[in-house]
Amino acid sequence: MRAHQIVKTFGATAALRGVDVVLLPGRLNRIEGANGSGKTTLLRVLGTLLAPSSGTVEYAPLGTDSRRARPHLGWVSHEPFCYADLSGRRNVELAAQFHGMDVRAAWGEVSERFQLGRAAERPLGTNSRGQRQRVALARALVHRPAVVLLDEPTTGLDRQGVAQLVRVVEQELARGAIVALVSHDPEPFGACPQARFVLERGRVVDGR
Q1: Taking a C-beta distance cutoff of 8 angstroms, is the pair 29, 37 a contact?
Q2: For residues 76 and 53, what is the distance between their CA atoms, to the nearest angstrom?
Q3: What is the number of other CB atoms lying within 10 angstroms of the CB of residue 193?
Q4: Is the pLDDT of residue 95 over 70?
Q5: Would the pTM of this model clear 0.70, i.e. be above it?
Q6: 148 CB-near residues (< 8 Å, 6+ apart)
Q7: Structural domains in the chain plus CATH codes
Q8: Residue 144, Cα to own-chain centre: how many angstroms?
């Protein structure tokens, strides 16, 4: 997956200024930088939530068509962005249905993997922060996406929740997914093979 000369402007403000990054599978691609450096903007461009003002993102082997790439992406943010009035199970089932999966089989797999339990049968808005994040992970990964995008996913999680998230990231890397992470606290992921891209004022100033 490659972003080539990505520029993103909002009015007169340039959030990204000719960003080039290559994200490879099997390693954690860390996107770092101070507040306002363009990290989340870049992640949103990679995740097709924002169209670049210029430049291209190539989703090998799908090319540069974001519409074709979108079904192969999984997104997890610091907010679950799930339907709070629906149960956790129903949130996951809707995602599985959208991707044309067998809903019952998909639920059985992710409910065990993420230890969702009985709490997932209640309206999601009544669940704890950790439970909501587990549902968000299950929903994002139910279709085994080729690209996993994580935007501050540890926010509000306790130690157990962070440990579970790290295990999930390790599993995704092991199956060959491309995983990109924006986080102010990358330390929990230190054991993962990784690459690092540092942004400053919308440009990559360090990439290795």
Answers
A1: no
A2: 24
A3: 10
A4: yes
A5: yes
A6: 73, 74, 76, 140, 141, 169, 172, 177, 178, 179, 180
A7: 2-82+141-207 (3.40.50.300)
A8: 12
